[in-house]
Amino acid sequence: MAGVLGGVVHGAAALALGMLTALPAAAADGGLSVTGPESAKVELDDHAKRDHLHGPLPLVITNSGPASVTPVIAAYLDATGGENDQVCTRTGAAVASQTDQVKAIGGNQARAVAIDLVVPEQCVGREGTLVVSAPNTPPVTTRFTLTRGAEREPEYTAALLTAAALALVVCLLMTVPATFFGKPRENWESEPLDIDSPWSVKDSWLTNITALGALLGTVLSTTGFLADWLPGVSLSQFLGMNLLYGGVILFAPIIYSASCYWGWPEQKDEKGRVFRSFKPVAHGWGLVVAAYATLFGVFGQLATIVVLIVSAAADQVTKWSLYVLVAVAVVFIGLYSLRFVRGVLATPPTEDIVTPPAGQRSAVL
């Protein structure tokens, strides 16, 4: 009897020990897992919060435990050793939240969830880690990379309208009947201008520089150089706008030449003797219209650069430095054009005139 009782006690103890050792194994079978790309790309777009972007990160979260759980999601961005590490790696810099109405996941179920990531704009291009956890379960992680969304296109239309408006303002100032930078003569639009050579591409440094800028922009956009600076931004439209502005600039000499007529106007030499020579005679309206075409092309290229800077993956210091450079270029080009055209349209002096050699005077920008 004692042997039988001893056997029962030993059997119960073995059964209890087996149950105790089985409990951790059963608990280990339950938990969370994440299914998704090894390193998902998160395309970022504008967000309501100033200087922040957001983008979706779709995942499938599996709950292999018997009980329903509500995942807790957090995101952390990697340090790169750059100047924006303090902004991008601080606590709460990247905010991750589920966009679904129902956030709980039932036991032994899997559900597709959409995670909305909100990050500072300076953090575009960084990699990070998404952490998914729940009470009494070990956390799981997945990697992601932040990229600029392809649908964030530069505002080329705004650049075109801005260039047209700026060129119009400068050209209107060219014809204002005031005394700054010379006063335009009466009937300046129809009276012949006393200039010796027609506008040509080779004689115009402003036309040459802007045409070279159009060529340079074409080379940079087709060789992939700008793609690294503008991730996710299509450069095909930039290429088309760049060629458009370059074509307008090259068309300016044609506009000027169309306003000229060839004739035998009276001229005076250094001794005051009157003579005639066969030459093109320009008019003020042709000069102003050609100047508008040139300024529209120049300002168009500069405005396109501005909208590209806005869309670029660069820090704010770099962006504002480029903004200042573009603004300085606009001011100096506008000022030079204004002073030059008003000087040509002004009434020439009647005394103490020294006639330069033929071909030395021209009305080109």
Walkthrough of the structure:
This protein has 365 residues and is α+β, with helices and mostly antiparallel strands. The protein has 8 helices and 13 strands. The strands form 3 sheets. Strands 1, 2, 3, 4, 5, 6, 7 and 8 form an 8-stranded mixed sheet that branches. Strands 9-13-10 form a 3-stranded antiparallel sheet. The N terminus is likely disordered.
* Overall pLDDT: 75
What is the H/E order?
A: HEEEEHEEEEHEHHHEEEEHH
Sheet with most strands: 8 strands, mixed
SSE-based structural type: alpha+beta
List low-confidence stretches. Answer: 1-28
Number of strands: 13
Percent range of helical residues: 40-55%
Number of discrete helical segments: 8
From the spread of the alpha carbons, the general shape counts as: rod-shaped
User: How large, in whole angstroms, is the Cα Rg?
Assistant: 36 Å
Distance between the termini: 121 Å
How much strand content do the residues show?
Answer: 15-25%
Task: Give the arrangement of secondary structure elements.
Elements: H1 2-29, E1 32-35, E2 39-46, E3 52-63, E4 72-77, H2 85-88, E5 95-98, E6 109-120, E7 127-134, E8 137-148, H3 156-174, E9 192-193, H4 205-222, H5 225-229, H6 236-258, E10 261-263, E11 266-268, E12 274-276, E13 279-283, H7 284-311, H8 316-345
Parallel strand pairs: 2-8
Antiparallel strand pairs: 1-3, 2-3, 3-6, 4-7, 5-6, 7-8, 9-13, 10-13, 11-12
Supply the key terms.
eight-stranded mixed sheet; 8 helices; about 40% helix; 13 strands; rod-shaped; single chain; three-stranded antiparallel sheet; disordered N terminus; alpha+beta; about 375 residues
